[in-house]
Design a protein that fits this description.
A hairpin with a 4-residue loop joins strand 6 and strand 7. The two termini are 16 Å apart. By secondary structure, the protein is of the alpha/beta class. The chain is built from 3 helices and 8 strands, in the order E-H-E-E-E-E-H-E-E-E-H. It has a 4-stranded mixed beta sheet with strand order 1-4-3-2, covered by helices on one side. The chain is globular.
Length: 170
């Protein structure tokens, strides 16, 4: 008996595959199980960057207080007035990862470059079977978009997982 089980029904992330489709933006209100708060010296410029380059949308805003951004369900970012990138600000050195699908990677890179993102690294394939793009935001946040590649249970990744005692369904 294993403590590991397939629980994709709990997640908005689609099962990895070459034709996996990203879920629609989620506009519902829910108790957020996790979110990122990013201080920014220029809320308007930050909203513009996060929406045009990174594909988030503005769920709502409270003038002078917070702008709530979202992509998929459970991918929430709160932009708040503050000093961007300052030590102790919460943004300097912060790294956050968001799931995406393989079909979004190229468009994400193009959008970031079109907007003039400070830094875009990748895409690159990882040993844990994802393709990742790393974007530096104006606030000093390192945002990783990570797309699962199709799983090959008999390939190297499958063998590596089996060696750790994880035997996924085939």
């Amino acid at each position: 008996m294993s403590d590991y089980f397939n629980a994709f029904e709990m997640s908005p992330v689609p099962v990895p595959g070459p034709d996996a489709v990203a879920p629609e933006p989620f506009r519902g209100i829910y108790g957020m199980p996790m979110f990122v708060t990013v201080p920014t010296a220029d809320v308007g410029a930050s909203v513009d960057f996060w929406t045009r380059a990174l594909g988030f949308f503005e769920l709502f805003s409270i003038p002078g207080g917070v702008v709530h951004l979202r992509r998929w369900a459970f991918q929430d970012v709160l932009l708040v007035p503050g000093e961007s990138g300052a030590v102790g600000s919460g943004a300097a050195g912060l790294s956050v990862s968001f799931a995406c699908v393989l079909g979004e990677i190229d468009a994400l890179v193009e959008a970031c470059r079109a907007v003039g993102a400070g830094s875009v690294e990748g895409p690159r394939d990882t040993p844990w079977n994802t393709r990742d793009v790393v974007v530096g935001t104006p606030e000093g946040v390192r945002v990783v978009f990570t797309a699962a590649k199709p799983f090959d249970s008999v390939g190297q990744v499958g063998r590596d997982l089996a060696a750790m005692g994880i035997t996924p369904e085939r």
